[in-house]
Amino acid sequence: MAKQDNRGIRVQGIQDVERSLKKLGLAPKKSRTLINKALRPAGMILARVMQNEYRKEFNKNNYKRKEGRTPTWKTIGVVTARKSREPGLFVGPIKRKTSPIKVKGKDSYNLTEMQILGNAIQDPRPDIFLKSARKAESRVYMKAEKDLDKLLDKMIKQAGFK
């Protein structure tokens, strides 16, 4: 079962999967890693939808990009929640230096999020991250559920129960 927060999608029932893996003799860290690997394809579906929505919103003009600059839509991706004890992935703008742009004398990071939130020059734009999460919600849930079921079946077979 999955539910949507106001700023993200949470897959519920992962605790049941963790308990099942614990019964099969896996350490919590190893089971968290396996669950994150199973959830990554679902996260990639959402990241691709977000990238496409971002391109539709911001790349309306056809212009030649300066050499050495990364397209800002490429900064949208999937990051593993490493400091969390529970399995989880974050999908959205990744903090990385993409181009040699200076803002108030400092290197510009996370331009995608800044463009959505707005700044002193730009007004806020529609929240394409929330829009795309709603658009891909059912596909993400189905993929996550399918991959978690495959993970459990694989672990049960490895434990010798089937």
Description:
- The protein is of the alpha+beta class.
- It contains 4 helices and 6 strands.
- The strands form 3 sheets. It has a two-stranded antiparallel ribbon. The chain has a two-stranded antiparallel sheet with strand order 3-4.
- Helix 1 (14-23) runs antiparallel to helix 2 (28-58) and helix 2 (28-58) packs antiparallel against helix 4 (128-159).
- The longest helix is centred in the last third of the chain and has 32 residues, at 128-159.
- The mean pLDDT is 78.
List the SSEs and their pairings.
Elements: E1 2-4, E2 9-11, H1 14-23, H2 28-58, E3 76-80, E4 89-93, E5 97-103, E6 106-109, H3 111-117, H4 128-159
Antiparallel strand pairs: 1-2, 3-4, 5-6
Helix pairs in contact: 1-2, 2-4
Low-confidence stretches: none
Mean pLDDT: 78
How does the overall form come out from the CA principal axes? elongated
Identify the strand order in the major beta sheet. 1-2
- Specify the helix fraction band: 40-55%
Number of helical segments?
4
Q: C-alpha Rg, in Å?
A: 19 Å
Short overview:
With 162 residues, this protein is of the alpha+beta class.
Throw out a few tags for this protein.
two-stranded antiparallel ribbon; 162 residues; 49% helix; 4 helices; elongated; 17% strand; alpha+beta
